[in-house]
Amino acid sequence: MKKIVYVPMAADIIHPGHLNIIKQASQLGYVIVGLFSDKAIASYKRVPLMNYEQRKIIVESLKGVDEVVVQEEKEYDANLLKYKPDFMVHGSDWNNGPLSKPRERAIELMSRWGGKIVEPEYTKDISSSKLNQAIKQRGILPHERLGLLKRALAAKTMIKGIESHSGLSAMIIENASAKDIEGNNQSFDFLWISSLTDSTLKGKPDNEFVDLTSRIVTVNDILEASTKPIIYDGDTGSQIPHFELMVKRLERLGVSAVVIEDKIGLKKNSLCEGESVQHFQDTIEHFCAKIKAGKQAQLSDNFMIIARIESLILNVGIEDAMNRAQAYIEAGADGIMIHSRQKDGREILEFCERYNALENRKPLMVVPTNYPSLSEVELEKAGVNIIVYANQLLRASYSAMLETANLILKHRRAFEADKKYIKALDLINLIKGN
């Protein structure tokens, strides 16, 4: 009887390194490939380019593979305990990085029944990360980008994005990666195209003065600089016929979702306060009609319309917000965004608790601009599915530009300011083709 060999794989981009591992594994016995689920991959790096079923078809066809089973977590415990393999084969690249702790656990488990870990030397000059980077440089087609947001939501309980206001900011977000305080890799799942930052960058008020045609110029710049999915801030969506055209245009470009708020009249930014600032909320019936019209206008199932509720902004209470959430979902909204000015975030958490009880619950989105002390962990625990850092990059760039301008004025030269920013040659080298 052949010995059992367990080979865990993500196999999103098959390359010679995978084939080498399978070849060595097949020489040891019956090869079972534990293929990571989309959720397992997304727990420690990006959402895979191909979904689980697509990857399974490819792996099953590889020479030397006898069986493919799903691995639901990045940790190997469940499948190792289920199959108790004689050998576990994994490339030596897991010695460092996000799989180093699961490796230690796998070694301990395998030792319980006398199993052996086999670690073929990592294939030089090739890796999934390098291949993925090459794919990023080539870009992505609109229909491929369109469905990425829904796939990310299916693979993760919570996704996060940050505002992009230019091609350069999109490049930064595309490649931004850092380890959190627990040592886990973190990156942004999507880009948020904010009406506030888009208007501000143009020196215009955030009151829908900058029209869709002008904002699409920004969208196109960002599309060319990033492969991540995009959520577009659609303000009120304007009149219903205008919103239908907005949906068609955004979907055609490959934008994954649009957020529209249930306000009417001359738009004022929701964070504005004072007696001179008046906000007017749309009726539930009219806003539902707008959602329905938008859903009927879209051509694919991948495009999402997210309804933004302003009840907490207008101080009309959580009960009103809940009534609207239920109505908007019944009208066809693919998600709900709840907004708040309160700095402690308590009413957001209270709304989350109420919202989670809905039978037909859809993904919930928040923008913690005014309650930045609430962490992603706390918001995810409360049931939030989408977190947006809505204007931090433009605010940071304004502060940096203002400081630089003042330093140059103060010292009447650029020497002191030069310590604060990127070198000119490095800036030039950011863009391929310079």
From TrEMBL:
Transmembrane segments: none annotated. The keyword tRNA-binding does not apply. CDD domains: ICL_PEPM (cd00377). One of its GO terms (molecular function) is phosphoenolpyruvate mutase activity. Keywords: Isomerase, Nucleotidyltransferase, Transferase. Residues 12-132 form the Cytidyltransferase-like domain. Pfam families: CTP_transf_like, PEP_mutase. Coiled coil: none annotated. It is an enzyme of class 5 (isomerase). InterPro entries: Archaeal_FAD_synthase, Cyt_trans-like, ICL/PEPM, PEnolPyrv_PMutase_core, Pyrv/PenolPyrv_kinase-like_dom, Pyrv_kinase-like_dom_sf, Rossmann-like_a/b/a_fold. Its EC number is 5.4.2.9. It comes from the Bacteria. SUPFAM superfamilies: Nucleotidylyl transferase, Phosphoenolpyruvate/pyruvate domain. This is phosphoenolpyruvate mutase.
